[in-house]
Design a protein that fits this description.
Length: about 160
């Protein structure tokens, strides 16, 4: 189980140790502003250390951050399922069932439900420690054009 990170530990020592298998996710654009985020290639999970900047008005992790993390994890999983083709989110639904705490490790774990010729259906969980914080489901449209550069976190599994 990932060790909780306190604000004091994060401020004094920099980022806490990453859980096994996670590496920098190479986020750009919006996720670069709210990150850093990390990826575990083995299962396509994305994660982050919850910091004060991720808090909502009542001091827990903002639901928009959890949705952004789920969108990235499920979106990259959709691209993998589409053999590297670009994909865009058509629908993303979230059910929040717990609160993410500042100072903890939070990750989104994607699962491909089905791929058709033009769509990828996915579901996922956002978890912290042993607790599920949110459940996600969504649909991604497979585009005809391929990305000009590899998408961070979308590299093929080394197996």
């Amino acid at each position: 189980m990932p060790k909780a990170m306190t604000r004091e530990t994060a401020d004094a020592e920099g980022p806490a140790t990453l859980p096994e298998g996670f590496v920098p996710g190479g986020a750009s654009g919006f996720l670069d502003l709210v990150g850093p985020v990390y990826v575990r290639q083995a299962d396509g999970a994305f994660g982050f250390h919850a910091e004060e900047k991720h808090a909502n008005l009542i001091g827990v992790v903002h639901g928009g951050m959890l949705m952004s993390l789920a969108d990235r994890a499920l979106g990259v999983a959709a691209m993998r399922a589409a053999d590297g083709a670009n994909c865009v989110t058509i629908e993303l639904g979230m059910q929040f069932v717990g609160a993410g705490q500042i100072g903890t490790w939070i990750e989104a774990r994607p699962f491909v439900v089905r791929r058709t010729g033009s769509l990828v259906f996915l579901r996922g969980e956002v978890v912290s420690g042993g607790d599920v914080l949110a459940s996600a489901s969504g649909v991604w449209k497979i585009l005809r054009r391929r990305p000009s550069e590899p998408v961070p976190g979308a590299a093929a599994d080394p197996s």
